Amino acid sequence: MMTPMTTDERFGELRRAHLFAELTDEQLGMLARGMHEIALEAGQTLFRHGEPAERFFFLREGLVKLFRLGPDGSEKIIEIIKPGETFAEAVMFMGLKGRYPVNAEAVSDARLWTFNQKNFLEMLRQAPDIAFGLLASMSRRLHMLVNQIESLTLQNATYRLVTYLLEHIPSGVKTSPEIQLTTPKSVIASRLAIQPETLSRILARLRQGGLIEVDGPRITIRDVSALRRLVQTPEGG
Amino acid sequence: MMTPMTTDERFGELRRAHLFAELTDEQLGMLARGMHEIALEAGQTLFRHGEPAERFFFLREGLVKLFRLGPDGSEKIIEIIKPGETFAEAVMFMGLKGRYPVNAEAVSDARLWTFNQKNFLEMLRQAPDIAFGLLASMSRRLHMLVNQIESLTLQNATYRLVTYLLEHIPSGVKTSPEIQLTTPKSVIASRLAIQPETLSRILARLRQGGLIEVDGPRITIRDVSALRRLVQTPEGG
DNA sequence: CGACCGCCTTGACCTTGGTCAAGACCCTCC
DNA sequence: GGAGGGTCTTGACCAAGGTCAAGGCGGTCG
Description:
Two copies of one chain form a homodimer. Helix content of chain A is 41%, strand content 22%. By secondary structure, chain A is an alpha+beta fold. In chain A, the strands form three sheets. In chain A, strands 1-8-3-6 form a four-stranded antiparallel sheet. Chains A and B meet through helix 5 of A and helix 5 of B. The structure holds a DNA duplex.
């Protein structure tokens, strides 16, 4: 048994999510009434593509991947959910017949809060301001997807990996920043729509070129500007 | 000079858009107050990727493509807008600092109505019900993008083209449906993220296999079920 | 009518990244 | 310490699709 959380602690944790950050205590209270906690073990499935979508989720601990399966069973990870993020909330607006467009599975042991669709819509109706936050967060997600489509079609594997690395440089570091990969390389590969072998080969090539150093899950960037140049668009774009 | 439209005609046209379909006359009236008409010639640019997003659009006539440019200037068409559709409305919620995530250009001569961001947000604040329609339409678009990502990564060029064909079969036709391509093949190729040459080759291959007949922009499907089988997923998915 | 232009098609070749297979490395557990 | 398992790496090979180049097939315009 773990010590029960105070209401304040719960509210603080919920506010980590973009979606809830702007809510008043009262609104969070309404939200929390319909909230349930669940735990998943690594590898456990949360929901499957095509299932009726009756709940959405807030990830407290662990890692969850959202993915689609191809005809041959190969999986493409659409998004990796990290603690403090909500997911599947967009589906709530497809109405009662809405279905999850992806599969969700815990990558590592995870703890989540779940929210019931009906309660949530009801709350929105009473506090329409929240809808604006939702609209903003959805349009952000929309743009992310557009960016993904661009990089999947306009750019090659090296470009995608280098972009991924550059995006994960800890801020504030000037020289030789070090990136600690928090997810297995195979997961990153799927996220970038390449095979683990190819990921490995590209890292090797960058290493040989003196741009980076690789030590297991720790990657040190030797030459940030050279990496930037690799993915630079000639035009402003 | 063209004959001026009656208010009723305008409302009827606006309601063709998902986004506006559910609005009352009064709400449409508010919307129409901030509306302006513009015309574009084929090839003319409406807005560019990165520009401040102050307006969104309703396409009345013609064809508009939304696309991104790669480092080498190659373009990937994200979406082809057809008459009766709205676009760029999601960006309105990124706040005053929002910027268009794509380029927009008229494929053929086009007429549009434009809506100012500030007016629109103001109206939403007074009629929060509309926000729910918006949320639904955005989550639909979100799902479409997820589907695109899947087909770009999990499936090959033939799969994408066949899926495109199947989606464009006029409804109600049983035997040998005929598809009239309304956009140049090169545009379709970009939409499917393949080269025009590849598109041409795949069509040739399908033709040799007796699955379709091609006569310029007119494609006759000889064997619908064979096409369906081509893209069938072994599992339910 | 014939030159020209845009769009599509076809062919030859090449690059990228996927597949298959073998082994390296590392960690845990007995 | 050693066996076993998961993950990552490396190599050899292959297939899909991109690139380059040439030509066909209407259209339009002078």
